Write the structure tokens for this entry.
Amino acid sequence: MSNIHALQCNDDLIATSGYADQNTPLIHNCWYVAARSSEVSRDLIHRRILGVDVAMYRTLAGMPVAVRNRCPHRSFPLAKGKLEGDVLVCGYHGMQFDSSGRCVNMPSMPLVPSNANVRSYPMVEKAPLVWIWMGDPDLAQEDLIPDTHWLSDPSFKSVTGSFYMKSDYVAMHENLLDQTHFPFLHPGTVGTPAYARSKLDVREEGLQVIIDRALRNSPPPGIYGVPAGIMHKPVDRLSEARFVSPAMHVAFARILDHAPDEGAPSQYRFNITHIITPETNNTIHYWWFNSRDFKHDDAEVDAFMTQASEQAYLEDVDALEWISEVVQKDAEPQFDLNFAPDKPGLLMRRTLHRLAVKESQNLYSHNKKAGEQ
Amino acid sequence: MSNIHALQCNDDLIATSGYADQNTPLIHNCWYVAARSSEVSRDLIHRRILGVDVAMYRTLAGMPVAVRNRCPHRSFPLAKGKLEGDVLVCGYHGMQFDSSGRCVNMPSMPLVPSNANVRSYPMVEKAPLVWIWMGDPDLAQEDLIPDTHWLSDPSFKSVTGSFYMKSDYVAMHENLLDQTHFPFLHPGTVGTPAYARSKLDVREEGLQVIIDRALRNSPPPGIYGVPAGIMHKPVDRLSEARFVSPAMHVAFARILDHAPDEGAPSQYRFNITHIITPETNNTIHYWWFNSRDFKHDDAEVDAFMTQASEQAYLEDVDALEWISEVVQKDAEPQFDLNFAPDKPGLLMRRTLHRLAVKESQNLYSHNKKAGEQ
Amino acid sequence: MSNIHALQCNDDLIATSGYADQNTPLIHNCWYVAARSSEVSRDLIHRRILGVDVAMYRTLAGMPVAVRNRCPHRSFPLAKGKLEGDVLVCGYHGMQFDSSGRCVNMPSMPLVPSNANVRSYPMVEKAPLVWIWMGDPDLAQEDLIPDTHWLSDPSFKSVTGSFYMKSDYVAMHENLLDQTHFPFLHPGTVGTPAYARSKLDVREEGLQVIIDRALRNSPPPGIYGVPAGIMHKPVDRLSEARFVSPAMHVAFARILDHAPDEGAPSQYRFNITHIITPETNNTIHYWWFNSRDFKHDDAEVDAFMTQASEQAYLEDVDALEWISEVVQKDAEPQFDLNFAPDKPGLLMRRTLHRLAVKESQNLYSHNKKAGEQ
């Protein structure tokens, strides 16, 4: 790793050197979470995703639907209209769109105009999440949706929360791949001094970046030890932190208790799901889930894990918002320094940059082809 | 009209194809309403018009005066100064300007500097309105002020209100020339389903765009039927909607009752005056008047018409502000589609575009001439 | 002075003609006040100066320290971290910086990276003020700090206050060099009609611009006359207003009473110190001190002078903020006119412009040299 020691990057260098930052174009050909399942109903809602406002609702049969929140006629926000059955009616001139975005009626016209459709976006529900594809619809393969089966698997119990963040999603992903900040930013929850110094192993699988870390014979941090009831007991802590896609990061923690109490498990599993949907380059819709495989019906544990998670993630949110403000307001741009432990984040930023370049080239060749017609 | 069916326009296309939109330069050689008569008094006020802040007051003789709200010396806003007789005194260094904008005293100088004038703007009062000319003063002919005689004619009684709108005035004028939105945006007031489908006739008179519409033997909408006391009675409804100038739109409605009750009139006249003064390209000072030729002294009718008008116009204001927000925030610009019923609005937008191009050419030749000296 | 009568300047002309305005780059090679002594303590604070956010604290030995409020690693604001002895610890990854900005520990790295320093800024305390040098540290000579000895000299008693202003510092300095506005903007405090018409003498000493004014045998303004107890008594008023540097303006007023009451002094001295630290081109940290050489322990005089000063300076602040808003919002830029009494301000603006040009040339040659390596 020493070769990236002291590597420098700034706004300009990244553009050439290939590391995404807050200015890199967002990635469109990717499944993002548009909403929780519980948010999408017969009441129209809207949310800006990758800079585009999207209206969402559920058909009578329960299928989630997303269309651009802008009527193709006079730009009225369709979420201010109403649903009539499965038809979305614009509140301005009454244009009607079916769940595919096709215009099925324009009251002031004798015939339905053939080209008067609103763009719809592929949606797939994997409860408790509804995923959306904002990019080229021909590429929207359902099997590209990241695995989150533990969120609906009865062997896990999840607590959850959400934040609207004024930060860029690249810095957020870098934060999640970086555990050397735990003892400093999260001293009361996930951070222990020993953890920061534990050996880590970084690898890439396709677009994913994975960190493995094993900390043997050490007391667990409160967020794991308290609910398991093994605080201050030396345990093994195996962690995997995984940049899954621009839309998601997952951390898997396994706490191994080699001398469990009578009737207590010898292993505790925690899956922590970070859902990151960029609203714009500088704002994020962020949902988190903390799932455990024990004490499913213990309301006290639920409350503890909710509180501890919210505290830790709020510390991240605050830090990233402060950084974003510093970066945006500063009259003198800075060349951020990189150190060896930044390697996972830099691998992820290289991937995001490569994806952005590829999309802009596709867009270019697509536009060129369109122009030739 | 079928030839404009499916015509497309967007920001770039408009620039070439010739339809004004939110980015088109504002029209300066035009009379705009600067204020209600009641607003202009011995107390200095100021209002931004076409991007320029204007200070206003009334002379001792009662004449309304408008000057740029920026002292020519150190840019102090003159409306923060004070009136001494008919002289406006700057609050910073005491420079004094007469009602023509001429500097008549500069306390720190022995002589009045000959070039130290503030720009004044021609004003004409046609109660209850005060009109201003922000363009070339040589072109400010009083007979170009649009007719609003019914606002002071005792045979009419008016109710009135105002809004400050975050929208562009082109979209506002287009909204006023477009009556196919009535049943959808204004279902409770002016909109009836039959009206949206009634035949319309569009014509241009010079710069004006006029829509005529006749709806025979149909119940009037509440806003006309209730005050006239002929709700649910089949009547003829003759409407003229007129884009008068960048500053004004007027609608004339005539309700003909062919079987009036004993003593009741056989015709009810409503003149609806929409005064539109762009503050900037994205904000509007909007005043409305709803004038009727019957029940002049009926406070209940006044209250009903005020409430019904405010509700309907607020629906327009809300819709246009939502659209403006969508258009301004969207990361992906949209090509708005046009349909046959959009013809009146497109004629108006073509006129506004032509006026803007003409003014920019005059400005160019003026600047060129000035540069040659 | 008549040769500058009617001289015109605007944004473009200034660039060529050489008068600084709100768009001129800020001057970096200059001592500015960063904070009052009382603000700098063991609790971290931060303040934006010349566009750059600066974290400040005091070492255990009491020395004030300023470093860039942005960690060189991931841009975390260091003022959100904590002090451990004299070491500033970043709140994100625990990087530690000594008071010179040198990184002395990076917890996640076995060795301290040699290049991981944060920029520190020279600071000098001259109680009650702490001065900072934001420019080239090689030029930060302590003897360039302006004299403010009266602020700590026991023969003077000072009252003080501060404002955060939304204005540009050039207009603020121009306001302080311009006393013809006193009777109009400050009629209740420092302004008297006679004063505005009194003869003034303008001269330059190096970069400084000095105005001398003597007003003989005239009643003093309230702000001097009331505390001295010589209101409405004819006195001589000798004033010097001095543009000391981009960071400071000082006014010295001497009131001479040629017929003092028994036991009363024949001279009253007032030193008024205006400390101006640009936050950005359009915002200012402004501190004022009003110092007198009599009635040191009179709480009533303290209260009167505080109230009268705050009133007068608030009038300036309001005026300058109004002007700044007018200038920034106006759709039609204005060529401000200049008159003979503007000469001191124009001399100062010429100096600021010259300094800005010089710094940009040095920066250019510095960058060029760096690029050649």
Q: What stands out?
A: The radius of gyration of chain A is 23 Å.
